[in-house]
Amino acid sequence: MNPVGGLGPAERRRAARHLLLDGFGLAAQERLAASRVVVVGAGGLGSPALQYLAAAGVGTLGIIDDDVVEASNLQRQVLHSAADVGRAKPDSAADTLRGLAPEVEVIAHRERLTRDNAAAILAGYHLVVDGSDTFETRYAVSDAAAGLGLPVVWGTVLGWDGQVSVFWSAAPDGRAITYPDVFGPQPPEGESCATVGVLSPACGVVGSTMAVEAVKILTGTGDPALGRLLAYDARTSGWDTIELAAPPSGEVDGAGATGSAEAADGEEASRSAEASGGPRAVEVPPSSDPATSGEPGVLVLDVGLRPGVPGAVFARLEDLAAGAFPAELLDHPVDRPVVVVCERGLRSRGAEQLLRAEGWRDVTSRALVG
Known about the structure:
A hairpin with a 4-residue loop joins strand 7 (228-233) and strand 8 (238-243). The strands form 2 sheets. This protein has an 8-stranded mixed beta sheet, sandwiched between helices. The protein has a 4-stranded parallel beta sheet with strand order 10-9-11-12, covered by helices on one side. By secondary structure, it is an alpha/beta fold. It has 14 helices and 12 strands. The chain starts with 8 loop residues before the first helix and ends with a strand. The protein has 2 domains: 35-271, NAD(P)-binding Rossmann-like Domain (Rossmann fold), CATH 3.40.50; 278-367, Rhodanese-like domain (Oxidized Rhodanese, domain 1, 3-Layer(aba) Sandwich), CATH 3.40.250. It has helices spanning 9-14, 16-19, 25-33, 46-56, 89-100, 118-122, 135-148, 179-183, 193-196, 200-219, 268-275, 317-321, 327-330, 346-357, and strands at 36-40, 60-64, 105-109, 127-130, 152-158, 161-167, 228-233, 238-243, 299-302, 313-314, 338-342, 363-367.
């Protein structure tokens, strides 16, 4: 008879603080060691979630991401280092996790999760942690997980605000609820951290809370956030709890919650929002505004994903954030009008804030019309 159960001496020593925890103990730790968890996204939310799940002793961790590490990720995506810039995120994340917890099996899925492959990827796991940054991915995760009966720990962060909840189509005690039950049909992509920014430690708070919810579900301890949306405000460091209710059978209109459904951490949401439909010609919307009628003294700055306005000065939003301004802008008097434009008006609003902070006083943002 093995007096230490399914964990070896080294694992027990590592997990000692869990074994001493009231209401947790050896049985819960063994459940973690036998668990298989897949995390969608190795970004701002996936980073802390993955680190704490590995450190907590989850036996198998899957990582789904098709992106590479960029310098702008390092502000919040703490799984990656400066040396990882240019590497595939699942590979960078896997190396970090293996260094943190060598006994954890890490599986890197270097691909984008879609409706076509979601069920095949998620099958074989016990729980999904969704830290994705587009509605397209969230709804694909939700539908596949519902079909497989898997619980989904979901989180989002944007600006100063974050949200966490647990969705589970097969939840016991009449608490079955899914992401579309709360937020309704899939909407167009919206704001993202690439367009409005995000406070980096807020990603840690929300991602760590997602790990807490996952551990509670896997071990049967505590009270998971089933039927509740936890809303975090980093400005006050306060949490609010919003009670959720699935709509009556057959109705999915988003009436079950009062929380927002904005895009989460990551740049991909703005790419989807602003580049949907593929390349197309765009024009500045007709207006009596002198900025759109070519009046001298007005600078039109195009911060779209690609140049689309004849006669405008083109600049990448990321370059503006880095303080790399085009010569035409530097030569433009700070008291003369600047109109910033992009396809949907998301990136231009962010650029407007940047320029105002740099001293330009007459800056407005516009959306283009395709």
